[in-house]
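ok trying this again, last paste got cut off
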Amino acid sequence: MISLPLVAVALLPFALAAPQPDVGVIHVPIVRRSQTNRVANLPKVVEALRTKYGYQSTNGPYSKRANTATVPITDEENDSSYSGVVSIGTPAQEFNLILDTGSSDLWVATSSCTSCASTEFITSKSSTYQSSGSSLQINYGSGSVKGTPSQDTVSFGGFTITQQELLAASSLTSGLLDSVLSGIMGLGFNTISALNATPFWQALYNGNQLSQPLFSFYLERYIDQSVTDSAPGGTLTLGGTNSSLYQGSIEYLSLASAPSYWLLNVNSLSVQGNTVSVGSSTLAAIDTGTTLIAAPSTVAANIWAQVPGSVALTGEYEGLFAFPCNTDVTVTMSFGGSAWTINPADMNIGSVPSSISGTSSGLCAGGIFDIGTSVGSGSGVPTWIIGDTFLKNVYSVFRANPAAVGFAELASGLSTSTTGTSTPNPAKVSSSTASSTSSSGNPLLGAASTNANIAVSLTLLASVAACFTLLF
């Protein structure tokens, strides 16, 4: 009879040779939402973005940002919202929240908010929910959200934080949220939080829960595909990077200002092969929650002057530009390092009706617009907003210490930067939900560890041992 301990010892090296997950590194699939009325929604997108960063239209009324009550938001009805599954409460309730590096607060629609979202947070069912009893209203360009500053257990991608501060929303402006979305998870720094809260990702970093002090994005492209309500949208990696999604090295650029938004300086720009001056106002917010690219008025006009047949739109579309749909607009940008080319497909938002363009049909809306005049001041006020029109073309990394944003070339097959075409979901990312971990007295609980695969390996050993027992 063969000794079971000897069998276990003999098989142990093979069991432990199984791939082990990186400690403190979680890869989270994200989902992209699409809408058929992409161009019709552009005025709302532009207005929301101007209010988000404290801007006014060139000829519009003066509108001052209201202290901590005005914070960034993603326009959920546009064609380029990227969301992840976040669990809140005990027991956990799951929600699709927009992932936004241009804001820092977490808020979710609650059951007291009538018809706000298809999935709403039922606070009474969470044994760990704590309400402050106070009220806060957050105003956006496309509406407002009002609710109660609160705390509860929040899990995302296997990481969990108890006593995470969030806004339990009790009322929203009609149409503020797409019905399949329930709120926002802000990924900016705590210094721009309306709740004066530490964002989820930053709490993980402060609690030494991340393998590396960073998170990274790969954003899928569907703008050149048939319209879909939702689709695999790429991957957010917390605590590290995913080397299968990029090639070469990551080029890190130090933040251009104290941490608030993720800020870099636009260094150079070319359009259709022609150099365009970026001017003296070059501070740019790198924002996953924004679909388009916003540029200062003079620069935006000069950009589209390089595209024959382009026109500036007027009325509610003021600030936007249209160009002949059969033209590939090629834009290259640099932030002080490498020059990155934007896929022409990302520069084409969709056909503009002649009633809007004021000319014959055949014009399409462009992915860069005139943001208008800043109503803020100081070293930390961005004059450029770099959204998904650019970010879909690079692998982007947001590092807390030393504070920097990094870009890398996408892995072969993930994107094409010259032909204007791409393959939907080339990374074959599948949907999954965030997993919860058990709570304790510690408000910061870590993510998955190598114990998971080791446990599976030991289970395998036990099964093999049982077989030997039956055989001998």
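PB: full thing came through this time. Residues 451-471 form the longest helix (21 residues).
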